[in-house]
Amino acid sequence: MDGYANINKVYVEVLAVFRRDGRLRPLALKWEDGQRYSIDRVIDIRRAASLKAGGTGMRYTCVVCGRQTYLYFEDEDWRWFVERK
Amino acid sequence: MDRVVLHSDLNNFYASVECLYRPEIRNKPVAVCGDPEQRHGIVLAKNYLAKAHGIQTGEAIWQAAQKCPGLIVVPPNFPLYLQYSRLARQIYADYTDQIEPFGLDEAWLDVTASTGLFGSGEKIADDIRQRIREEMGVTVSVGVSWNKIFSKLGSDLKKPDATTVISRENYQQVVWPLLSKELLYVGPATQKKLYYHGINTIGDIGRTTPQYLRRILGKWGEFIWHFANGYDESPVTRTGEEAVIKSIGNSATTPRDLVSDDDVDLLLYALSESVAMRLRESGLECRVVEISVRDNSLYSFVRQQKQPRRTNLASEIHDAAMGIFRANYRWERAIRSIGVRGSDLIPAHSDLQLSLFDDEMRRQKLVRLESAMDDVRRRFGNLSVRRALMLTDQRLGALNPKDDHIIHPIGYF
Hints:
The complex is a heterodimer of chains A (about 80) and B (about 425). By secondary structure, chain A is mostly beta strands. Chain A has strands at about 10-20, 25-30, 35-50, 55-65, 65-75, 80-85. Chain B has about 425 residues and is of the alpha+beta class. In chain B, α4 packs antiparallel against α6, α11 packs across α12 (about 220-230) and α13 (about 260-280) packs across α14 (about 315-330). The two termini of chain B are about 30 Å apart.
C-alpha cells in the first residue's frame, strides 16, 4: 500500500519457493543493508496484523540465526515485510 | 428453538484501518475525510479521540477542525477498506454461510446451525472478536440475540471490542430502558412523534399496543412494536442472495457548480457512461431511469421515468436523463451535485418485445460500439476512450465516476 510511510515497516527482498502442493515457503531474506540471511525454519504460519509496522498479512514465524522473527506476506500486493526491532 | 443471530460492527471502521496503517497517528484524534478540492470535504469516519471532541460523521472538515484543533485529517483509501471488509467476511464465513452485509463495516450472521460445532452465540462472538483483533488489527463489537433488530442494537451498546448478549431473559432490563431512537427505523421524526404521545423508551413502545402505534405512525407503528418486543423474524440473507442488485447509480459533487444545460449535459454523459458500463458488467438492463439533483442551497430532488424500452446503453440513458432534467429544472439556482441511476433491472439476455418502428439495425450498431468501448476501457483505463464533449471543460470532463466512486458509510434510511 503506497502512501503509508512507516519507518518500522521494512519491505525486504525474499527468496521463496512454491511447493508442488501450493504452499509458499520463504527460504532467505535480504535486509536493507544488503546482508542476506537464510531462514532456517518456519515454525508457524497464520494471518496476523502487525500493530508495530501497521498492516496485516500471512505471518511466517521464522527462525533466522537461531532467533525467532516474524516475516509478513501482504497477499494483496505480494510484498514481504518485517518489523524493525 | 430460537435463532442465534449475531450482528458484527467494525468499530470506527475507516479510521481504525487508517490508524493501523499509520502507527504515528494512532494516539491522536483522527478523521477520515473526503477531498476538499473536489468539494467532498466531509468527515466520513473518526476515531475515539476525535469522537471525544464531539466530531460527527458528515460534518465539514472546518467544523471538525474547530472542535478539535489538533485534528489529523487523512484521505480515504477505499480499496484498502474493501480489502478489510472482505477479510472480515472471510472470518465470518468460517462460522456460517448465512451472512448479510450492511455496508462495508457491518454484517448479520445467523449461526443457529453452527452452535453445535463452535459453542454458544456468545462463544462464537468472542472467537470472531479475537480473530479480527489478531488477524486484522482492528476491532468489532458484536451483538448476540434471537433476532436481527436486537443483535444490531446489542452491537451498539458496548464499544469497542465487546460482546453484548440480549436474551429473552434480559431484554426488558437491557433494551427497554433505552431511548426509542436506539431502535432500528426510529429516526428523529418518529422519535418526536412518539415523544408527543408520552412514549420515550423502547420499553414504552413495547408496552403499548400495536393498534395505538398504528394510529400514530401508520403501518410502521406496528413494525416498531414488533421490533421492540423482539418479534422480528426477518431472516439473515444467505451470502450471494444479497447480491441481487436493485439499482445501479452514480452521482458526482462537481469541482465547480453547474450553471447551464451544457454543463449538465456533459456530466450526465460522464455519469451515464459509468452507469451503463456497470449495468453491462452485471449483465443487466434498466427499465427506469432516475436523476437526482442537488442545488447550491443543498435543496435536492429525485425524478424518475419508465423507459419505452429497457437499456444499458450510455447514449439512451443519457438522453432519458437529460429529458427528465429539462422537464424538471428551471435554473433558479446553480447545481452542486447530480446523479443518474438505472432501476427496475432485468437480465440483459431475457426476451424482448421489439418495436416495428425503431431502427433496430442502428441500435445493434450502438450496442456493438459501446461494448467495444468497454473492451478498450478495460484494457487501457476509463479515460482512454472519451466523448469529445468531455474535452470542452477541463475540470468537469476530468471526472471519472466509475473509478472515483466514494463509498459513504451506510445510513439506516
